[in-house]
Amino acid sequence: MIAPPFTDLLRAEPAILVAFSGGGDSTALLHLLCEEVGTARIVAGIVDHAARPGSDEEARLAAGRAEALGVRARILTLQDVQRSQAAWRRARYVALCGLARKIGAQRIAVAHTRDDQAETVSMRARRSKDARLLAGMAPIAPAPVWPEGRGLRLVRPLLDVGRAELRGWLRARGAEWIEDPSNENDAYERVRTRRLLSASEIARLAHEAARLREGAEAIDRAAAAWIAAHVRLDGGRAVFPLAALAPLQDGAARAVSALIAAAAGAESEPPIEKVRALLARGTGTLGGAKVGARGGQATVSRDPGALLGRGKEARAIWIDLPQGKPLVWDGRLEIVAPGPGWRIGPAAAPPDPTAPVFSSGGRRFSLAEAQSEQAAAEWLLAAHLEHLLPLVHPALSRAC
């Protein structure tokens, strides 16, 4: 069931984290991966959302079933999460990314199926006609949280396999799984969508997503090439010649979308139609970033209003820096304080209100001055761009 490119890819990994709920899809994924790559390098990450009574018992049951296969299991209990699907999703991936780093895994295997793909495409189609969104979930994708997911990838080995097929395979093996009652709760859009999709509609949507995925990956490659050819990173901003936008191609628009997210330290990119509209105007703000133009050069940098607030609501927020441990400030700068009592905040004044400034012992320091005091700092724009525009694995593109 798992395409050979996935098994080849995962066999080369020193550690593999499997997002494991104990449900039918993730149970099938765990069984299949144990057979294909062995159990020694697999860790089952079990997220207890603590959203309903008994969830801790289900997490322990899932852990026991993973351990019965010879797999190490870790339960991650979420705390103080806002009760919404989006908040739970983000907290879940933050927890999984933290575990992945602890065990030395760069890949997190998730059990999204053909049915999940069709549901995702159907829900997105109600909101947008963007072909990239309608391409659905990619077989390999950046972890969807930033900066916690920096450099980590989601792997979806079951994206071409149907949910019913997986459950039939489990029944034939006598394997058990946990039924999550939330999968029957019509309060959730995905559940309502699932009820509306026939088998033929699932197949059609999944096929269409795969077709559009080829185009999306081609645009990603063009965007990465455009950035390599035209963009210069200068601290917390990106600079490129305005002439590189004429005429505006899909790859260039996608590149600017990624530049906006990186300059803003944002988790997600702005809608591509809004990027195109901004570029048509020439300058403006979008997604937490500011696009400016001068002397034939365009700059993409942090939007002061998004960082500080606008008008009477504007204020600078300072953060205490832990000694000797890296902290990512504003999604843009990784900093390690050289000692206790260091703080970081925005300059909130010309020439660059969004520049980082530091305080320690009653003194203020610019970034360069803090570095001369042995603070370690790294701008993350390059890492953010690499995260958003990963190289496409050629064998997976053909197989999936």
Q: Would you give an account of this structure?
A:
There is one protein chain. The chain is an alpha+beta fold and 400 residues long. Among the domains are: 4-214, Rossmann fold; 315-380, no CATH class. The protein is built from 15 helices and 18 strands. The protein has helices spanning 4-11, 24-37, 55-68, 85-103, 114-125, 131-134, 163-173, 189-196, 199-230, 250-264, 272-281, 304-308, 367-372, 381-388, 394-399, and strands at residues 16-19, 42-48, 72-77, 107-109, 140-142, 153-155, 232-234, 237-241, 284-286, 289-294, 297-302, 319-320, 327-329, 333-336, 343-346, 356-360, 363-366, 376-379. The strands form four sheets. Strands 3-2-1-4-6-5 form a six-stranded mixed β-sheet, with helices on both faces. α2 crosses α7. The longest helix has 32 residues, at 199-230.
Keywords for this structure?
400 residues; alpha+beta; six-stranded mixed β-sheet; five-stranded antiparallel β-sheet; globular; Rossmann fold; single chain; disordered C terminus; 18 strands; 43% helix
CATH level-1 class of one domain = Alpha Beta
Strand order of the largest sheet: 3-2-1-4-6-5
In one word, what is the shape? globular
Tell me the span between the first and last alpha carbons.
Answer: 12 Å
* Secondary structure category: alpha+beta
Total number of helices: 15
Mean pLDDT rating: 93
Instruction: Characterize the largest beta sheet: strand count, sense, and whether it forms a barrel.
Output: 6 strands, mixed
Per the CATH scheme, the topology name of one domain is Rossmann fold
CATH-derived architecture of one domain: 3-Layer(aba) Sandwich
Low-confidence stretches are 392-400
Helix content: 40-55%
Strand portion? 15-25%
Provide the CATH superfamily of one domain.
HUPs
Radius of gyration: 23 Å
Kindly state the number of beta strands: 18
